[in-house]
Amino acid sequence: MSRLDPDETLVFTPPQGRVDGPRPGRADAATDDGDAGGPDAPGGPVDGTAGRAGGRRFGRRKGRGHGREDVMVPDAQFSSYYGRQIVKPAPWKHEIPAYLYLGGLAAGSAMLAAGAELSGRDTLRRNTRYTAVAALAGSMGALVADLGKPSRFLNMMRTVKLTSPMSVGTWILTGYGAFTGGAFACEVARAVLPTTGALGRVAAVARFADRPMALGSAAFAPPLAAYTAVLLADTATPTWHGAYRELPFVFVGSALLAAGGFAMVTTPTQEAAPARRVALLGGAMEFVAHHLMEKRLGMLAEPLHEGRPGRFGRVSQAAALGGLAVTAAFGRNRPAAVAAGIALNAASALIRFAVFEAGIASAKDPRYTVEPQRARLAARRAAGSDPHGITTG
User: Residue 99: which residues within 8 A CB-CB, separation 6 or more?
Assistant: First the structure.
C-alpha cells in the first residue's frame, strides 16, 4: 500500500455520469463563460489541467503548510441509494392483518371456553367454542388466500425448525386446530346425540374427552395469540423489528379484548361475567404494552401516527376506550353489552391493521433503516465499545 506524502491532500471527485445534466470532464459540461470542466466545475480536473472524458476520480494536490493528511470530503448527508428503499417491504396484503385478528379471536375464545368448562357455564362454553372454530376457519382461509393455494401450508408441515417463527407457528396452529376441533366435536355430540343406545356410548366418549380437549386447546391458545407478533418482529421491517419486546403483549391483550367482546355479544349477561373481566384485562394489557412499545421505538413509532396507520390507531383507541368504559359501567345491560362487544372487536381488528401498515410504511422510507443504525453505532462508540471489533479510540 502506498503512503500519502504529508504535504499532499487527497481530493475526491464524484463518479462520472451519476447526476442529471452534463457529465463532468466533457466538453458539454461548459459553463456560461465557456470553460469546460474547469477547476470550479463539479467533477472538474483537480490539478488545473484539461479534463478527459471518464478521467481520474482521485487526484492529489500539493498542500501549502499542511503537516497532516486531510481528506477533502464534506460530511455525508443522509440519502438513499438513488431514492430507492433499503428494506424490501413485505409483499403481504390485507389478508394478513385479517389473519392476525381472527387468530387472536380464536385463541382468546379457546381460553374463555376452557374457563367456562371448568366453571360450569354451559352457554358461555358452547358459544366460545363455536366462535373459536369459526375464527380459526376464517384465519386459515385468510392465510391460504395469501399463500395462493392450500398445498403451500401443507408444505410448511414437512419440517420442524425451532429457529423459524413460521415453522413453529405452523405447528402451533396445527396443534391448536386439532384440540379446538375435538372440543367442537364434543360440543356437537352433547347437543345432538342421545344418551342411550349405541349413539349414547359415543356421547359418553365425547363427554369423557370434552375436558382434555378444552384444556389442550387452551394450552395452545397463548402461543397462537403471540406467535404472529414474533413472526412480524423477526423480519427486517424497521417498526416491526424494533417492537420485538412489546408486540407479543400487544397482540395477546388484543386477543383477549376481542374474545371477551365477542362473548359479550353472543352470551346472555348472566353468564358473561368472565367475558367482561377478560375484556377489561385484555384492554389494560394492550394499552400498557402499546404505550411502552411506542416509548421504546422512538422515531420508529412515527409510522404508527401518520397516514392510514395513524387513522386506524386513533379509531382503535377511541373504540377500545369507549367499549371498555361501557363494559365497566353498563356491562350487565344486554344492549349496552352488545354495543361494547362490537366496539372492542373493531378496536382489536384496527390495531392489527395499524401495526401491519405502519411496518410496511417504515420499510418504504429508508430513513427508518439508516438513522436508527447510526444512532446505535454512535451509542456504542460513545461507550467505547463495538461488538464488530471496530476500534473506537
Answer: 139, 142, 143, 146, 228
Q: Where are the beta strands (DSSP E) in the chain?
A: 8-12, 58-62, 71-72
CA atoms of 314 and 320, how far apart (whole Å): 10
Query: Would you say 280 and 325 are in contact if contact means Cβ atoms under 8 Å apart?
Result: no
Over residues 108-122, the mean pLDDT reads: 95
> Which cell numbers hold the place of 20?
442529471
Question: Pick from 241, 260, 256: which is nearest to 355 by CA?
Answer: 241
Euclidean distance between CA atoms 293 and 296, whole angstroms: 5
Query: Smallest Cα–Cα separation from 152: which of 161, 143, 160?
Result: 143
- Cell numbers representing residue 302 in the block: 412515527
For residue 203, name the pLDDT band (cuts at 50, 70, 90): confident
For 58, list phi and psi in degrees, rounded to 5: -120, 140
Is there a contact between 264 and 331 (Cβ–Cβ < 8 Å)?
yes
Average predicted confidence (pLDDT) for the chain:
82
Amino acid identity of residue 61, one-letter, is: R
The separation between CA 273 and the C-alpha centre of its own chain, rounded to angstroms, equals: 32
**Residue 201 pLDDT grade (very low, low, confident, very high; cuts 50, 70, 90):** confident
Question: pLDDT band for position 376 (50/70/90)?
Answer: confident
pLDDT at 75: 57
Of the listed ranges 43-47, 163-167, 310-314, 366-370, the least confidently predicted one is 43-47
Q: How many CB atoms lie within 10 A of CB 233?
A: 20
Identify the three-state secondary structure at position 354.
helix
CA–CA dist 84, 365 (Å, integer):
9
CA of residue 20 relative to chain centroid, distance: 38
- Domain-wise residue ranges, the chain: 1-14+54-74, 95-234, 248-351
Topology adopted by domain 95-234 = Formate dehydrogenase/DMSO reductase fold (1.20.1630)
Angle at 161 between CA 159 and CA 166, to 5 degrees: 90
Q: What is the DSSP letter of 305?
A: G
Cell numbers found for residue 152: 403451500
